[in-house]
Design brief:
three-stranded antiparallel sheet, 161 residues, Aminopeptidase, four-stranded antiparallel sheet
Length: 161
């Protein structure tokens, strides 16, 4: 049976800190798990998101209180060549059984709204794949980095469809 999205709520991680380890685990296993790294490489900077300052921030999707996805709003997403671009939507993760059911778009839209409330005029993200997913949500290609990386930098004005 497919999971439904009718019961999905989106909260800030600082509102549900009991899910901190789950979010850190998702991020670590999806993007940071390599020799020499531990989950602490994710947990250390993520702890700042528990302070509830608004930025940086983590939003978490919950299905009847169970975490099913998350997304981050960061000052930088590791694109050192472009320090003038900020803030970044990063680490969009949806649990496998909830994928292709609208949870990802809900998280992206909630993060866009949060960024708009903070007064940010532009949002950026790094896409190595799923560029079409973001294009369908109104994002535009800002820059394609050449070479072996296959990285596409995308942008959107928060609050615009």
């Amino acid at each position: 049976m497919l999971a439904g999205i009718e019961n999905i709520t989106i909260k800030h991680l600082h509102e549900v800190p009991e899910h901190f380890d789950t979010v850190a685990n998702w991020i670590y296993n999806q993007w940071w798990k390599k020799p020499g790294n531990t989950e602490e490489v994710v947990k250390a900077p993520l702890r700042e998101h528990l302070q509830g300052k608004g930025f940086p921030a983590t939003l978490i999707a919950l299905d009847k209180g169970v975490p099913v996805g998350s997304v981050l709003l960061l000052e930088s997403d590791g694109v050192d060549e472009l320090p003038e671009l900020t803030p970044w939507l990063a680490a969009l993760y949806v649990a496998p059984q909830y994928r292709r059911q609208g949870v990802g778009p809900q998280l992206v839209q909630a993060l866009e709204q949060h960024a708009a409330q903070l007064g940010f005029g532009q949002l950026y993200l790094v896409a190595t794949d799923r560029v079409d997913f973001y294009l369908d949500l109104g994002w535009q290609v800002h820059l394609k980095l050449v070479g072996n990386t296959g990285i596409t930098i995308m942008q959107k004005s928060p609050g615009r469809p």
